[in-house]
Every structure is written in structure tokens, then in C-alpha cells.
Amino acid sequence: MQNPKTKAVLLFMLVLSFGVLIFGGYIIKKEKPPIPDKIVSSTGEVIFTHDDIMNGQNFYFSRGGQHIGTIWGHGSYLAPDWSADFLHRMGLYIAARHNGVAAEKAKFFSQEEFDALDAPTKGKLRAVVTEEIKANRYNPSTSTLTLTPYQAEAFNALKEYYGELFMKGNERMGLQSEIVKTAEETHKLTSFFAWLSWAAGTLRLDKDYTYTSNWPYDPLVGNTPLPGNVTWSIISVILLIFGIAAALFVYLRYIGKDDYKPTLIKDFPEPNPTQSQKATLIYFLVAILLFVIQIGMGSLTAHFTVEGTSFYGIPLGKIFPYAAARTWHLQLAVFFIATCFLAAGLFIGPMVGKEPKGQKGLVLVLFGALVVVVVGTLAGTWLSATGIMGDETFYLGHQGYEFIELGRVWQLLLIVGMIIWLILMLRAIYPALKDEKDNGGLTHLLLYSSIAIPLFYMAGLLYGKGSHISDAEYWRWWVVHLWVEGFFEVFATVVMAFLLSHIGIVSKKFALMTVNFTIFLYLGGGVIGTFHHLYWTGSPIPIIALGAVFSALEVVPLTLMGFEIVHNLKSVQEGGEGYAYKWPVYFFVSVAFWNLVGAGVFGFLINPPIVLYYAQGINTTPIHSHTALFGVYGMLAISLLLFSVRHIVTRASWSDRLLKYSFWGLNGGLAAMAVFSLIPSGFYQLHYAIKYGLWYARSPEIASGDIIRAFSWARVLPDIIFSGGAILLLIFLVNAIRQSFFNKQKN
């Protein structure tokens, strides 16, 4: 039985954390950068309008959006951050004009020319540029923004620059030609970039910092870090140390006790799966196929750093551009992991409860629906990135936001599929729910976490085509952070608790306590910690403070992974050489390892505001995303797959040898990828972001320069090793299915 006090504490934490998150969303909505109705010159001439900005935003997203560079630091890392790029280029133009350079020549005034000036002149020009850009000439009563003469000139000069860039393409930036085809499209796109940079460079009307809290760093335009960035970073480290100490005390005092130790089940009889459990094999098989394709897209995306629009001389840019490859890479990762998680839920349902009548047929119908969503998503995003679909891509093509690229129609169909999955889960576990008198028991927690999966994915519906970027980013991170990193992990934790208690690695009492402790720590830090993704998206200072403090607390539960690793390794050793669950447990051990390293160490690396002020939008983020997204959720998906498949296929079809090489290939390849490529390229770029600013760290000289390209080449061998591990896993699964069912039928 769960202690009533525990239930009360968890409920209180739930209400408090989501109350703060929702109130923070209200503050973000209230304080977001305004979009003027019209932007005019000092003479009153209309330069661009609110509609131009929104049409430019929609056009940008229709061509791949956050996969053709970043905006306010969110997106892909080959092309520039367009907000930082526009802001710096405008600063250079204004500096040139104030230094007496003619308008035509000022278009081409470079940072090298500025650096060549004497120190007093540079100091004077920085002061003039800062004053001109920082002054807020927006009139809320008329919703009109007035540009200075030089700002108006800069807009027209940059419109010419971006028109040529997106018309002709740029190999170093991974931009294919003819992203824009008309002067109207150029005007819309430049208007959007101009507004983004205005919000990043202009002071709020009632504050001494910009709408993006002085991000990005750029001394030329006066963007430098706020004192609060340092203060809250220090506080976050102090709270992290305190939180780790408290978590260790609670774990060792109340959870890590010998009396929770169960008796390990070593006997493994021939599996006797239900019909619906057998039907989940098609989910797992397709999931691994998606995984293999996803790896191929990742290798192609990495290669585009070397040849931005080609693959070993083959011009792919027009038919399969960088934006399409990266979109598929991310979407296939989500589909692979989600498919394994959903299939594991369908498998464990009859294990917990019983096999409902007609469950197999419904499981297969759901699989067909998921196939439609996956195929529709991949086709729609490709048609959008190549420009074939035109500008109206939001519903069937590309939404433009990272990790939620799929068109709104496919998004709705996916939600319908999740609801069907929830019904199938409920059908299976309903008898166990009735038998479990405690509504806080493991079976009820399985139900609650299952409900959370479709529920929190629906947050992605709360923004739409033409939503303000600040609002859209808030709801997008509800999906990416709360759904992927939060409730999917809680669901997986509950499923693993069932499986590990079923095979005797942990007792049911210990499993329940661990799940409750995990939920408590997640609610205590993870929910409000969502704000650390929103530091520079037009959010006010209180959001930065909350994000810094609570994102640090997210790391606390990850420090306990060492205990989990030791315990599970001891269980495998106790099971002996022929232990049936050796490799499923080993993959689960790797989850704990990568949780500690990828999510903990590399996650906290970019969490403090003062670090992320410089690291936002550069290759430090992929260090965390690769080692956490695959290292944690990918390995967890494989562990769930193997636990499930172990109870479906015959004993004779199981190959520890293939799984051994797959395990070391995947883990060794990921580690080598991080050590020899991701980490050095990330810190190399960070050096220049701190020294000169994001505009330079993301320029082709750095982002696709010789050093970064060398680090990209260094990924080749790790990628081959990693791919080999995935292919061996696919071979294992195909052989197990063939020997268990097809050879059996022949015999």
C-alpha cells in the first residue's frame, strides 16, 4: 500500500509545479516582444508590416524552418542563426555609415574592416551603433515602429543580401538554391529576420535589457550578459549540491535497504505469449528499421557539414536538401523510440492483466494507423523542404519547429492513435486495476502514466500557424521536454518497474518506492525546469531565474544512477553466464550510464544561464542531445524491446552473441562519436562564441570551416561502429522472429 502522506505530497507537487509552469506561460505571453502593425522610416514611409513579418515566418517554416539555421538559438547548426546574423550585419552597416562610408559600399563593410580601424574609432562606433540599435522607437498606442535612416537603409541592403543568398543557395551553409524565388518572398523573409533581430537588439520599453535578455552576445551592438545570468547560475550550482546531498540521504535512509532485496528468478521456461503480444513483434521490427534509416539520415546530415549540398560529389541539395535530411533524422528518432515504448505497453498489458477479446486485431489496426502517420509525415516534410508543396505546408507538410515537424493533420492522427493505444492498454490492465485496491499502486501508476502520453502530446496543438514565436516555443517545449523527457520517461520507469520486479531483480515494494521517488524528483525539478529552454525566446528575467534553479534540480535524480548500475550489474552476475535477461538488463544499465553522463553531465553543462548565453545555438547542444536522446531514450527503447521479445520468441531463437556485439557497437560507437567529434567541435565553437559572439561562431568560417569539417570526418569510424550495432540488432530480431514462427510452421 502506498502511504497516504506520499500521495498527498505527490499531488501537492503536481499542482504546485504545473501551477508555476502555467503562470510562467502567462508571464511569457504578457511580456513577449510586440509585433508592430507597421514599421516605418523616419519620414513615415512604410518599410514592412505585421503581415509581412507573419508571412515571412510562415514562409520560413514552410521550407524547413528550424532546420535551415536557427532563430533565437533554436534549430540546426550549419546555417547561421538568422536573428544574430541580421543583427550583426545591421550593426556593421550602421558603423560604416557613421564612419563616412557611402551607402553602396557600406553593404559590403566587413568585420575585418571594422577590426582594422584604430581603437578610439572602434570605441566611438560601438557606442554610436549600440545607442542607435538599443533605443526603442516602438509606439504601443499606434503599434508603429520607427527606424532610423541608417536602419532603414540596412534593411534594404540586407534584403538584397538575403535575396541573393536564398536564391542562389550556399554550399557552406547547407542551403540549396531557389529557397526563395521571387522578390515578394525575399521581402517577407527579410521582414521576419529583421523583427527577430529588433527584439534581440532593442531594449524593452521599461527595462535596461532587450526582449531576449541581451542575447545573443555581440559587443558591436552592445549585447552583453546580464548580472542575473551569473547570479542565478551560481545559485543553481549551490542548489544542485544541496539537492544531491538530500537525494542521497533519502535514497540511502529510506530506499536503498537490504530488506527490499528480492529473490532473483533464474529459471526461464519456454515463452507462452498471447496473440496480441505476438502482434507487437511487427512494431518492434519496424521500429528497428526506422532506427537504421534514422542513422543513415544522421550520417548524411553530418556529411552535409563537409559538403553542404552534395554527397561525395553527388548534388543532393535540390532533391534531398539538408533540411529534409535533418528533419527525417529527428522525426525518425522520435518514431523509433515512441514505437518501442507503445509496443512495450501493449506487451505488458496482458502480463499485468489479461488478454481481452479481439485485442490482436486492434493492435494490428493501430499499427496500420501508425504506418500512415509515419509515411505521411516523411512525405510531407520532404515535399515542404524541397519547396514542392509551396507555402501552405502547416497542415500536411512541415510545421517548421524542431521535433514537431509533422504537419498538423498527421499530428492529430498521431494523437488519435495514442488514444486508441490508451484504450487498448486499459482493456488489458482493467482486471488488475480492479484487483489492486490501492489507487497509488504500480498498476494505477501505469494507467496514469499511460493517460499522460496522449494528454501532454496535445500541448502541441495549443499553437498554430502564425502563432507568436514566444507562445509557440512555450508550448513546443511542453511536448519536447514534458512529453519526451518527462512523462514518457515516467511511463517507461513504471513499465521497467513491472518487468524488473517480474524477473526478481527488484521487489514490488522497492519498485513502487523507486517509481514514487522518481516522480517526486521529476515534479520537483523537471516540470518547472522546462523554462531553461526558454531563456532567450522573448521571456522576462523571472523565467530565467526559475529555469536556472529548477533545471539544476533535474540533475539530482541522475546522480543516483551509480547505485542503479551497481545493483543491476550484481543481478546479472548473480544470474550466471546463461542468465536469460543478461542483455536486456545490460541495455538498461547503459540507460543509467548515459542518463548520468548524457542527461546529467552534458545536460547541466548547458543549463546555467551564463553558459547557455554563449552556448545557445552551437554544437554544445548536440553533445547533450545525442548522448541523452539515444543514450537514454534509445537504449531504454531497446531494453524494453528486448524484455518484451524475450517473452515472445522461443528460447532457441535468442542469440546472446548477436546482442553482445550490438550492445558494444551501439555504446562504443556513441561514446567514440561524442569523444572524437561532438565534444571537441562543441567546445571549439564555444570558444569563438565567447570571444567574438554567436554571429561569428555560426559563420561559415567556423561552423563549416576546416576544423569543424575535420571533426565531422572523425565521426566516420564511430558512425560505422554504431551502425553496425544497429544492423546486428535488426539481424537478431529478424532471426528470432523467423526461427520462432516461420521455421516452426515449416516443421
Shape descriptor: globular
Amino-to-carboxy terminus distance: 49 Å
Strand content: under 5%
Helix content: 55-70%
Average pLDDT value?
Answer: 93
**Poorly predicted sequence stretches spanning 5 or more consecutive residues:** none
The whole-angstrom Rg is 27 Å
> How many E strands?
10
Q: What assembly state would you assign to the polypeptide chains in this entry? A: single chain
Query: Which sequence of strands runs across the widest sheet?
Result: 2-1-6-5
Q: How many H/I helical runs?
A: 26
Summing up helix and strand content along with how strands pair, one would put the structural category as mainly alpha
| Main beta sheet | 4 strands, mixed
Give the structure's gist in a few sentences:
The protein has 747 residues and is mainly alpha-helical.
Report what the structure shows.
By secondary structure, the protein is mainly alpha-helical. It contains 26 helices and ten strands. It has helices spanning 4-31, 50-62, 82-98, 103-106, 111-115, 119-134, 149-168, 183-201, 227-255, 275-303, 322-352, 359-385, 408-435, 442-457, 469-502, 508-526, 541-554, 561-575, 582-605, 609-615, 620-646, 656-691, 694-697, 700-703, 706-713, 716-746, and strands at 38-40, 46-49, 70-71, 74-75, 138-139, 144-146, 310-311, 314-315, 398-401, 404-406. The chain starts with a helix and ends with a helix. The mean pLDDT is 93.
